């Protein structure tokens, strides 16, 4: 089963508006490592994340992180471990074992490195699009995008329009299982 590591950027965006459950539309085991959880310091995102982890029994550990942390720090040019380091360490470990791994992040550096190492990568908008592709209405998806935009993850007009287009395309396709 694919492990999907969620970064603080998406947890903050979805947690602020109370929509973390959208992450459960992915096929795979969600993981929120402790260093990432500690980066979610704003309310109500922090409280919603704690509840989400408990309610959905979200994994918080991965055996690859400790073994690949040093390599990850070098790859990212970091001097101390942080959430990004642990996510990339997990990606390094899973891809070294030829296991599929996913990353959900809006951080450009994390996305670029994870994709380059062989992970499947998406962001907050991708989470909403996935929810629409699994049965959430297009209007609800657009409303979620608007709420995200007004509560912290500010989008350009063109990015918002691209999100709407992706949502409409997902709504027009047969639901994914």
Automatic annotation (TrEMBL):
InterPro entries (alphabetical): PIN-like_prokaryotic (IPR021799)
The organism's place on the tree of life at top rank: Archaea
A Pfam match: DUF3368
Name of this chain's protein: DUF3368 domain-containing protein
């Amino acid at each position: 089963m694919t492990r999907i590591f969620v970064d603080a950027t998406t947890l903050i965006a979805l947690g602020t508006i109370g929509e973390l459950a959208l992450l459960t539309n992915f096929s795979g085991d969600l993981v929120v490592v402790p260093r990432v959880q500690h980066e979610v310091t704003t309310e109500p995102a922090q409280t919603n994340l704690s509840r989400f982890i408990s309610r959905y029994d979200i994994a918080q550990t991965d055996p690859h992180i400790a073994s690949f942390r040093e390599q990850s720090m070098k790859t990212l040019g970091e001097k101390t471990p942080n959430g990004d380091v642990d996510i990339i360490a997990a990606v390094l470990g899973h891809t070294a074992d030829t296991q599929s791994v996913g990353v959900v992040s809006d951080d450009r550096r994390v996305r670029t490195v994870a994709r380059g190492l062989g992970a499947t990568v998406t962001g907050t908008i991708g989470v909403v699009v996935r929810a629409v592709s699994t049965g959430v209405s297009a209007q609800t998806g657009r409303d979620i995008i608007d709420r995200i935009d007004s509560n912290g993850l500010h989008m350009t007009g063109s990015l918002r329009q691209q999100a709407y287009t992706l949502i409409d395309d997902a709504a027009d396709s047969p639901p994914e299982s």
